[in-house]
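call fold(seq) -> tokens
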Amino acid sequence: MFYDAIIIGAGAGGIFAAFKLACSGKKILLIEKQPQPGGYATVFKRRGFTFEAAVHSVDSMGKGGEVRDFLEEHGLGKEVEFIKLREFGRLIFPEHNCIVTGERGDFINYLKKTFPQEEKNIDALFKEFDKFYRHLDRYCASNLPDWLKLALTPFAYFYIIKMSIFTIGHLIDKYIGDKKLKGIISAIWGFLGLPPDKLSAFYFLIIFRGYYLASTDYIRGGFIRLFDAMVKKIRESGSEVIFNAAVTKIVTDNGRRVKSVVTDKGKEFSAGVVISNANPIDTLCRFVDCATVRESYSRKLPALEKSLSAFQVYLGLKAPAKELGMDAAMFCLNTSYDHEMAFTYSMAGDYDRCQLAVVDHVQADPGLVPPGKGSLLIFVLDNYSNWQGFSEEGYKAKKMEAANKLIARVEKYLPGLSAQIEVMEAATPLTMERYSSCPAGAIYGFAQTVEQASINRLKQSTKIKGLILSGAWTRPGGGIHGVFVSAMDAADMALRLLK
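ret:
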């Protein structure tokens, strides 16, 4: 059968693109190697506990956000229940402790009250942030063709360029002198995978606004409920979704135009457009049948810097974590205000000192666990190389040792935690790689350095007509909101080609 479009991978970047095309009246085929959609943003169950594999909340999922507006516009607001979170979480430092509510005034007032000597500098810094947001919003709202908007950027949207050539560390240093204040403002770096002095200001500011300056939502039952609802609507529209099948080959007309895909089951499906939500290294250096194209991309893509991976511990508890002192949906624990040093701890696998996030999904949705129970997700950035070269027994021992260190750190804030553990699972960078097929288990795609962010990030179009990329590895970057934007752009490219 011939399809208008085939989408490889039902991670968020693939399923959003597939859903938009199906809602636009196109006949599509979505192929996913796992038995369920979502990619990293999925759930798994153990002994009655439902664990969110990775997602805490989604910026722009709150009322009025672009992700929320898209979902409600296409009828999904009736299929899932949105739960507004009271706050993003609690930031904990050696000498400071504050709740990030998602209200702009709350965070800025806390900073001014805590660092009164920096009040004017705080105002000046946030005015700089606001200039960027105004330029970015005007750029996104413009109906001009992309090529013309890019040409006009140095004149009409100058702050997009400005924030694309600085790291966030450099930008904050221009205004703020107190090292502890710098550390508090930039604490969200751990959700982006690079410390402030290496992290693009462009992408930091996008994520910063989404979580620190706006409310966020969760979905009852986990984000898998949203993706299941999208699969249902795709099928109801007359399109198809196949699980437990992996694409192994993209067939082209001698590298000029995409023709079809072949799965590991030996089946071939033809289409006018193929959108790949698989990582671009596999897509362009392995799957494409044209050797010339593969060699061209192989000279560049594998050498680009990848983001870090993660080590995560999932705990099913005999009682809600709130009863142990978990008074916010998320704790971000920092042993230092120096995030460059914290990054080196993550690189080295120093689980006693690296930045740590612990999430209590049950505060938003008690239905994820049996009545009267609780759960926690503990997350740290980790380096893939920290987990290579072990025997099976050595790997299991290291996993248990790392998990116990993180649990001990959390227990300092939640006394009695160990005695309440009923279920424990852990996932390493090797788990991330095995589940997602992302090289080195990279959880954010290519690292968000200045050289690899904004306009410098891998674009969605490729050298092969009709082959389009979508997901965290492309513009603008990782996170559900980031891949949503990538998916919308990919779907729009596909619709233009299909005309």
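The longest strand covers residues 268-276.
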